[in-house]
Amino acid sequence: MRELTIGLSPITNTIFAGTLNKRKTMWMPGKQDVTDQAVMAVAGYVKKERIIYERAGKTYELKEVEVSEELLAGAGNEKQK
């Protein structure tokens, strides 16, 4: 059985789960869009754990922040739950 892989499509900004070919260059048939499940799983994890990471020489922290209805209304094209 092939290893399950999770990846982000740079074109559609969709998170997929599935298997890759032997060269790990293409998705095999049967990949699934798991964007909503992945986002909610990470949100649940962030809520319980302090996440600090580095990228391009800068340090970042992920954390849960409550937003107001006004901020959500002005979010434009961003996905809302």
Word description of this protein:
The protein has helices at residues 35-48, 69-73, and strands spanning 5-8, 15-18, 32-33, 51-55, 58-62. It has 81 residues and is an alpha+beta fold. The protein has one domain (5-73). A hairpin with a 6-residue loop joins strand 1 and strand 2. The longest helix has 14 residues, at 35-48. The model has no long low-confidence stretch (mean pLDDT 88).
Give a brief outline of the structure:
This protein is α+β, with helices and mostly antiparallel strands.
Structural features:
three-stranded antiparallel sheet; two-stranded antiparallel sheet; 81 residues; 2 helices; alpha+beta; extended
Overall geometry comes to: extended
- Oligomeric state of the chains in view: single chain
Largest sheet: 3 strands, antiparallel
Query: Taking Cα atoms only, what radius of gyration do you get, to the nearest Å?
Result: 16 Å
Task: Give the proportion of residues in helices.
Answer: 10-25%
Output the helix-strand order: EEEHEEH
Low-confidence stretches: none
| Count of helical regions | 2
User: What is the averaged pLDDT score?
Assistant: 88
Question: What's the arrangement of secondary structure elements?
Answer:
Blueprint: E1 5-8, E2 15-18, E3 32-33, H1 35-48, E4 51-55, E5 58-62, H2 69-73
Antiparallel strand pairs: 1-2, 2-3, 4-5
